[in-house]
Design goal:
The protein is about 35% helix and about 30% strand. By secondary structure, it is of the alpha+beta class. It folds into two domains: about 130 residues; about 80 residues, OB fold (Dihydrolipoamide Acetyltransferase, E2P) (Beta Barrel). Helix 1 packs across helix 2 and helix 3 packs antiparallel against helix 4.
Length: about 240
């Protein structure tokens, strides 16, 4: 199983701005999928092939091969028009794939293709339409909560965090309605929390965004009583 993945950008007028946008979207996609797979940041090295427009990401970590395969399969799923979030993708990864597809304009950029040791998977405009349908059409809202680990913080376009939900194996974007909750989320980075509020679901029923109005921090395992301590308390109460 290949532990490297690359994109090749082709076009007669590849500008620095388009190259940088494509590179950022590519790495956002690879790192996001690998994080959703392993619940941690994998170590990737970057190569830009001399004399070409090929950007390559490589990793020696055990989970890298599965992450690479999930990235390519996810692009293929979006390209097929299937309006379902691909496995190990979340909202951010769908957006990253959409960004890559939107860069292909037919004039400046004629194609962007993924390759992971097999035949290339071109990113077509179908990805844009499918991503838009997943992210917007048919979505619903309901009050609920998400339990997981805060594994991402961002202040771009306002404060938000990402909670990795282990059941869905994907990150869920959280926007906070109160300043004090933003502070609590910042302090809880890397810890397990329960965040409640208004959830937005994609049309396939997966949570993608939470406008949070509550946050509960779970105690660290080291702070929890041991089985022996619980048994001692039980004996004290009932003896």
């Amino acid at each position: 199983m290949s532990k490297q993945i690359e994109i090749k950008i082709e076009g007669p007028k590849l500008t620095p701005e388009k190259f940088l946008r494509a590179a950022k979207a590519f790495f956002d996609l690879v790192q996001g999928v690998s994080r959703n797979l392993s619940n941690r940041e994998l170590e990737w090295t970057v190569e830009v092939e001399s004399g070409s427009n090929i950007i390559r990401a490589k990793s020696q970590e055990h989970e890298a091969g599965e992450a690479v395969r999930a990235v390519v399969r996810g692009v293929g799923s979006l390209k097929s028009g299937l309006q379902v979030i691909p496995p190990l993708y979340g909202r951010d990864e769908v957006i990253a794939a959409r960004t890559l597809a939107a860069i292909v304009d037919g004039a400046f950029i004629t194609s962007i293709g993924f390759k992971n040791g097999s035949g290339p998977e071109d990113v077509s405009k179908t990805v844009v339409a499918t991503a838009d349908a997943i992210l917007d059409a048919g979505s619903s809202n309901a009050y609920g909560s998400i339990e997981g680990v805060i594994d991402g913080l961002s202040i771009r376009d306002g404060f938000r965090c990402t909670v990795f939900e282990p059941n869905y194996r994907r990150g869920i974007n959280c926007v906070f309605n109160k300043k004090e909750l933003e502070i609590e989320a910042h302090q809880a980075f890397g810890k397990r929390v329960l965040v409640g509020g208004m959830l937005k679901y994609s049309k396939d029923g997966l949570p993608v965004t939470l406008h949070a109005d509550s946050l509960r921090l779970f105690p660290d395992e080291s702070e929890l009583p041991t089985l022996q301590e619980i048994q001692a308390i039980y004996r004290e109460i009932y003896q």
